[in-house]
């Protein structure tokens, strides 16, 4: 049995609400869905989201990488030799983590389908329900408070507040959200690299002094400033979560060595897929760091894979997997769904995706 075809599908799906961070504003999910087909006609799917401002990945770049390099080396190979195939993908090209993640996930999906088990079972887990937070896009204090009340009414108990666009007003934003939702809802902050180290310490200490009960602060400073990240971590009590600072194992080793953060956010499109993500989770756990599994703005394909990972491996903090919740419609048939604040994995082989909404995507053989 061999891999007989590698196909890519360009997807641009609208969001029901604009998504705004310190780095960007978007109204769509733009992504590349990769499809691997075996000689029996079964398909496995993976996803490479376009995130210019975070990973530098683009749909066009991922598609070129898959068509010109990763795909040709998979044709005619045995999809059941999963560890070898995934290792070959990681070695094949420098960078291009999103493209590698798409192929890695598609290989895992295909392997699970061939065994007739959900992806989570292939990864060693059994649960089909994974709690998630939900993001409050960056905005003014009044709008954030209103959004927080609505998300609380939607059933979300963990809110991720985007800050970092205006350090002088961020304390008031957090105060407004806490007042809106009361003490029973957890609030975490994501500055998306938007603060200087001094701004980060000033804002976080202000939050601590005001007793606003923030669970964690994600990536307060620019990704390359590990000294600054460590400086902030040393001066505040709120746990610091490294996100953009950690793409792969070498990045995480440096964060551990410098004691620069308390937790790490593992994302498939940053690290290259499920195979390296498991290594990052194991490494973080071995060194006493907390873990979160998150995502870029991506579809049910990527979220399904990340949620399967969480269901099998677990994390120390609630996952950050609300990205597909923002979509106005799904570009795939089947796959995960949301039940309030829970990602529900399908009890079906692989990712449970039967195909794509072909009228809404561009396919390339």
Automatic annotation (TrEMBL):
**One Pfam short name:** MR_MLE_C
* Protein EC: 5.1.1.-
Q: Which SUPFAM superfamilies match?
A: Enolase C-terminal domain-like, Enolase N-terminal domain-like
- Which residue ranges does UniProt annotate as crossing the membrane? none
Q: Which UniProt keywords apply?
A: Isomerase, Magnesium, Metal-binding
UniProt keyword Metal-binding, yes or no = yes
Write out the GO biological process terms.
amino acid catabolic process; peptide metabolic process
One GO MF annotation is:
racemase and epimerase activity, acting on amino acids and derivatives
Q: Which domain of life is it from?
A: Bacteria
Q: What is the lineage of its organism?
A: Bacteria, Bacillati, Actinomycetota, Actinomycetes, Micromonosporales
Top enzyme category:
isomerase
> Cofactor: bound how, per the entry note?
Binds 1 Mg(2+) ion per subunit.
Q: What are the residue boundaries of the Mandelate racemase/muconate lactonizing enzyme C-terminal domain, all occurrences included?
A: 141-239
Look up the record and name the cofactor or cofactors this protein needs. Answer: Mg(2+)
**Residues at the active site:** 162 (proton acceptor), 267 (proton acceptor)
User: What is the official name of this protein in its record?
Assistant: Dipeptide epimerase
Give the InterPro entries listed for this entry. Dipeptide_epimerase (IPR034603), Enolase-like_C_sf (IPR036849), Enolase-like_N (IPR029017), Enolase_C-like (IPR029065), Mandel_Rmase/mucon_lact_enz_CS (IPR018110), Mandelate_racemase_C (IPR013342), Mandelate_racemase_N_dom (IPR013341)
Which of this chain's residues are annotated to bind substrate? 24, 135, 160, 295, 297, 320, 322
SMART domains (UniProt xref):
MR_MLE
Question: What does the sequence similarity comment in the record state about its family?
Answer: Belongs to the mandelate racemase/muconate lactonizing enzyme family.
The entry's Mg(2+)-binding residues are 190, 218, 243
